[in-house]
Here is the input.
Amino acid sequence: MATYGWAGQILRINLTTGAITTEDDSHLQKYIGGMGMGYRILYDEVPMNTPPRDEASKFFMGVGPLTGAGVPCSGRMNITFLSSWSKGHSILDAHMGGHIGPQLKYAGYDGVIVEGKSATPVYIKIDDDKVSIEDASAVWGKGTFEANKMLTEACGRDFETAAIGPAGEHQVNYSTLNTSFGNSAGAGIGALMGSKNLKGIAIRGTGSVKIADVTELKRLNDYMLKDLIGANNNHNVPAVPQSWAEYSAVGGKNRWSGAPGRRWEKAEGGPIDMGEQPCGDINKIAYRTLKGVFDYGEVASKYIVKQGGCSSCPIRCYTEYDMDPLADYDLPTATSNTCMPVLYADYFYPDGIKDFVDQGDAKVILNGAGSHAQDDLGVWCNYGNLYREFNWLCKSEKIKEVLPEAEYNSIPWEWERNCDPRFVVEIMRRIAYKEGELATLGEGTIAVQEKWNLGQEWMDMVAGNNQNITYNGYPKHHGPEDSAQIGMLFNLMYNRDCMIHHLVNITGSGAPYEVSKKVMEGFFGEGCYDNKKAYTPMNRNKAKVAKWAFNGKQFHDSGTVCNWMWPMTQSPSKERGYAGDLNLEADFMKAVTGVDYTRESLEFDSERISQMLRVMTAISFHNEFGATELRNTHDAIPAWVFEKEPDFQAFQEGTIKLDRADMELAKDMFYEEMGWDVATGIPTRATLEKFDLKDMADDLEKRGILPA
Here is the structure.
């Protein structure tokens, strides 16, 4: 068993038999943890043609060696399982922040394999080495907030809990697992747990993570916090000018949104002013990210209580609100979120929105109502596709065709016209409980396309609401609009939205382009980094950046650290020339685990995980469609990417549209960098054996899909 970083064992819990065992995981540590261990376990134990909600289906909740070790921005957990909603039903991951991941490590485990199916509702209780399957009949049917409260009361306040909501219980494809704070693991994990009658999990760990070199860990922490870390998404210049800063964001818009005069107006004991947050002052880092103001402008401050966040993270990106106007509608006033649910509930109001009390407050209030309802019901949004598809249905009036007349008339449209926040709550409720034809929206983009006979042209259409980056059922996640061909490439690689922030963290940081360009070219060479809307044709250095970002995401979800913050590519330090340190991830791994990691060796281990992802995707597409290649199937790009903004030509300044031939060249270069066959996009035997994945090469060969 491992001594440092890793706990050295994983749990296996069989809900059918009630068997609970532990297993040494030293043989899995070359896969790092989290995602990497999950891919290896599921490949070995769950055939890729297993129905996602069959009793034989499993999931792996895993954490990496950095989680629980005190490394900044490392409070993450990764959950690996088979997709129930995206094309191919292939391997994918859900990701969860908060404090529950570190608790699992403190309890003495690197992960939990959950298999089988309970006959009745249950939850898993982990109290160090005392692990049990507990009755959850009293909790079944509750929303996530109430369920987590009840689990905490039953187990003790020092337990961290996570629960599914009604959406998961009703096996809605778009469903989540949520903590009491609203940290959410999506991608349908709620439905898988619901199919197993598993309501949630409660964890208390009283142990600790053993560190190989505590002195070096402390030095790296101080170095990162003083010289490297910025604000949320590691934005490295303030949005509003500060006396110490050489630069501030163009237009005053980035996630370093804390500034003198910006306040938590509803803070306990009275308003708190953010003041200045100079580079090097580690006690002011938590004031840098005033996410609510970034999202909505100054009007949000009126409702901000404080900033919350995950274990081991000084950034505090979760804005906690108390929205008084919601009380007038008998809705909860407290909400907290940092991403999609708190940003786009206004999409459910296609007739437009109107303010409640102050100018510009409609988005704040409506999104607060929508966010709380979505988290409580345990509904996932597929990075906004749920919102966009409802909005499109209404604006195109397709909704009148696909819904039975009685169902259409039962929707409280007067609430929508009057900008009543109860409208979004009601729509979410219908989706969560699978009520009516409208609930098809919760089954996924592919289900919507197929059930309502929308055809391929629906994903090809040039429209603001269409962000489907492939034909596989998920939208772009910081794609070509942030980094041209680079963003397009890594958006093609997964079986859900990619959640890669390596490039948007730079393009959106607010730093002048020439400053960021110098940093990036210092790492990856000339021509690797374009200015926004001033894209140049594909080149080899761009392919290297795409590979770095793709493999880096695998480390983040295996390590397990926050991909919104890592890597430390840029710095707020003028003395450093605003350059970050790409060796830092390996340095932390070495200090924590005692393994002699270098940047190169860590990237190699991370790439092994990328190769496993690609193999499992190839197998799933072969199983489902008979596909012998991925280039023109899984990696096919919808027409809108190339046909949008018709007044512009690709590479003309002012557009983000891409060129078809150039993107095919981009695939060539990227596949070559990854060691994949250019014609098929599938890893070669030489590549797989290089990463000690000979068994996967043999598997592909038996199936007839290993490149010649």
Observations:
- The chain is about 35% helix and 10% strand.
- The first helix runs from residue 34 to 45.
- The mean pLDDT is 97.
